[in-house]
Amino acid sequence: MQRHHVFPLSTILLVAANLLIPVAIVTFAIGFFPYKPFLPGLAEYEPLGYGYPPEAPFDRLIFMVVDALRSDFVFLNGSGFGFTQRLISDGVAIPFTAHATSPTITMPRIKAITTGSTPSFLDAILSFDEADTSSTLAVQDTWLAQMKAKKTGKLVMHGDDTWLKLFPGVFDRADGTSSFFVSDFTEVDNNVTRHIPDELRNDDWNTMVLHYLGLDHIGHKTGPRGPNMIPKQQEMDGIVRMIYEAMETQPHLRSTLLVFCGDHGMNDAGNHGASSPGETSPALVFVSPKLKSISKPLEVPAGFVEDFQYYSVVEQSDLAPTLAALLGFPIPKNNLGSFILDFLPFWPEKRDKLQILVRNARQIYDIVAATTSLGSQYSSDCRHPSSPAEELTCEWQQISKTIEKIPATEDLDDAWITDVSKWLSKAQTLMTGMASNYDMNMLIYGEIAAGLASVAAIGAVASSASITTASLLPFVLTTVLYGIMMFASSYVEEEQHFWYWTTSAWLFALAIRSTPRKTRKYFIMGLVALGAMRITRGWNQTGQKFAGEPDIVTYFLSSNPPLLWCLVFATYATVSVELFNSLGNIPTAVSGSLVVGLVTSALSFKLAFTNEDAPELVVGFARTLVNIFDGPSLVNRARAVFLGLGLTSLYPLYNIVAPGTKAPRDGAMQTLHHLYTLFALTQSRTTNVPLFLLFQAIYLYLSRLDLEPAQITMSSLLLQFSSFFAMGGSNAISGVDLSNAYNGVSGFNILAVGVLTFLSNWAAPVWWTSATNLLLLQSRQPTRRDNSSVYMLHAALSTAFVTISLVFVMVACTTLRTHLFIWTVFSPKYLYSMAWSLGQHLIINVAFGGLLYWLGCM
To answer: What distance in Å separates the CA atoms of residue 74 and residue 259, rounded to the nearest whole number?
Structure first.
């Protein structure tokens, strides 16, 4: 009789739960991150009944973007923009701080600048895919499209190729540069500057866009106070000088307007993407000799302010209607910006001022009416408006009555201009702050799918015969507390503290638990592990409120490079010894040569990379080694490391697959773990390399304890999250580290760059996945042929945490969808939940971890 293998119920439930995770995530994301609708076509001037649009003072535009140009970089004392400050002092430049709404990423910020609208948060995701063209603005109304429609000249672009992706076919001449090679401070800008002299001599264009990336790259690598920052500011200031002197001397540039700005700022760590004051406060400067007639005296340089809001503060979206009036074209249809009143003196006639403001107000009111279902003929009891939209409509009706009387009068009250400006500001605030067009059905379906996955995962845990209520209590308490925390924005921003304190408490509990049954040595080892955890907590200051504050890296290591390199060399030496010991079943000469060659290759890459990335850290003996290892390019060095790791891993894999004794297989798993450690060191910032020494100390302590599978899972969960934040991770888009995303990659490849980006940001959690596998293999019973129940319980508990926390995050995002911080705190948290669930859990913990355990049990 043929016997059929029947899968246990726990296995079926576990598989079902993990299959439902991507279904839930994608379904919820479709409802939460939809593309916002827009009005197609180009705007045209509509007759107002009392004259044509006023004449524009400018006919050419040079739009110069310096990526991540924070306001204080230009306006504060000690800035490298000395010439720009002199222009402001002379009155030929008017400065602003342009508020950039979150997400402070280049692509959505360019959308806001060119359309005057508020981009979807989905653009923050698409901006990481250089090959994406789905987010194009080719069919949307922008000031670029309007300048092209004027047919008075060509459109030219040099710099960040994001513009070419957003505006395919719009530019007549272009030379794009990639924005993701963040180690490049010079060539990426030289490729822009080399075109400027020829373009300034040409008179066949009416719009020239320049987008410089070097300053942003410096910020990512060394922060806003790095040694390369002031020289880069001086370089950018020299470009402003070159352009301004051409505007003064060349006749065809006499009516040219230079707009010089940042797309976003940066925080004190040099990153961006979130909503801290530094990230949302880029500089904005209008430059032209013509501005002297309307400018007002200003203090130059400006006095220090803590929130980076220097001079007048405007919205980035205000650029669209302001450029429309200054250059003479209709305001883009989807604009939510308000004309900047500082430029009204260009038109001395009050009727011209009326034209500009009324056209702006009517254009925005059309969007208000369409979005809120309030038609232009809407009427209600304006004594008691029931909503902000109705209140706005009632105010518009009062303004309209005044407008109707204007043609019959000879004068226009200045107070009316103020009223219209206030209405524009209120309409802008209302439309910008309104909730997105969420698909509530998809949100609910996603939550239901996540809920079903949670039920299935809990069922898989409950069906395990080896689990006890006592062993589950810490897991349940951690999961519930973490889920509740997702409803508070401050806790989400500072999530790292939850994991730091919970991990410390867990390690302390293990130390107390081990004392009665073990010797005092184990308690001392527990205290050492707690000490390592304490140091780990202070290694990188992360989160939102204290990002950039002093930590171990900035206070001890960056200011004392010899100490840093001693720790780095100690880390590589420790890995070398561990790797050599795990290769003990092959001749010493062979294993020694192999380890020395592999580690030397990895260390030489790290030295060369740091020399390019942060040369101020390469001093003393490290500088000597860099000179000794000078030669191959960084790309070839990284490829050599990856190739060496790949070839070396074939030996332990052979030992696992080939028939043999148990000892070689255990040693082989250790070898694979140490090889991954070398890879993790390669994909980590130099200042984070010594953290792996601390991780190893904690692992050695855990390996000496007789941990049950549930305790191993709890340890793994806590250490994966705490190590992620210790390496500098956060719940903000600005926390994504791209510095190692191109190791061994010579050009953009979405798969290679995507994998390297994930493995560099999650290097430590993946390390703990590998370490967890060793602990699980150690906990199996040698007398049992089937040890799959150990891994199944581990996978079930991991899946239960992921699915339950996912439900909490989804419900929090749905409940708080109208919250002030929905796009700055909760939406980024959902994106990180996606990465943890799909990347770290499904691919690393379940697939990769399961493969490692299966290999170890062969």
So the answer is: 14
